[in-house]
Amino acid sequence: MNPRVETTIEVLKLTFNDHITFQKICQFVEVIRNKPLIIEADAMPLGLTGYCIPLSDVDLICYRERSRDMDLLSQLHEIGHILLGHIDSPSNMPAYNNFIREKERIAHSPSVIKYRGMQFDDPEEHDAEALATLLLGLILHTESELSPVARELYGD
């Protein structure tokens, strides 16, 4: 396993005293990136389960809806790219509202190719997937330890 994945897991475990929740991970990302994290469902081609775009004012993660655990794994995979430093913060990206307007315009244009393919052998994809899988295990472990009242107070 990539040492960066192991280090990221250790930092999160130490930061949250081994009580890792999805909400805490999202808040951690917002702090280290110094901008909000927006996660929303989106339609996408088969084979594509999610993507992350570093917009000027937010980090946007979109995922294809499936089951709760699969959705969570897709979201954690994209968060993994952020935590592992795979996602830059380019200064020329549009703001969220402008991006959404452009995305809607493109969606109605049949001449635009929206799917650029995947690189399944990319080491960054493997690292993001490894991190996502480990995080999901930690989240599910934390959820199994919390009472329903604590889960409602502290988030899933």
Provide an overview of this structure.
This protein is 53% helix and 10% strand. By secondary structure, the protein is mainly alpha-helical. It has a three-stranded mixed β-sheet with strand order 1-3-2. A hairpin with a 4-residue loop joins strand 2 (50-54) and strand 3. 19% of the residues are buried. Mean pLDDT is 85; it is low at 110-117.
Q: What do the pLDDT scores average to?
A: 85
Q: How many DSSP-defined strands?
A: 3
Radius of gyration: 16 Å
Largest sheet descriptor: 3 strands, mixed
The secondary-structure class comes to: mainly alpha
* SS summary, helix count: 6
Q: Report how far the terminal alpha carbons are from each other.
A: 27 Å
In oligomeric terms, what are we looking at?
single chain
N-to-C order of helices and strands: HHEEEHHHH
Q: How are the strands of the largest sheet arranged?
A: 1-3-2
Please sum up the structure shown.
The protein has 156 residues and is mainly α.
Task: Write the SSE topology.
Layout (H helix, E strand, L loop, with lengths): L2 H13 L6 H12 L3 E5 L8 E5 L4 E5 L4 H16 L12 H12 L15 H23 L2 H7 L2
What brief labels describe this structure?
single chain, about 160 residues, mainly alpha, 3-stranded mixed beta sheet, 6 helices
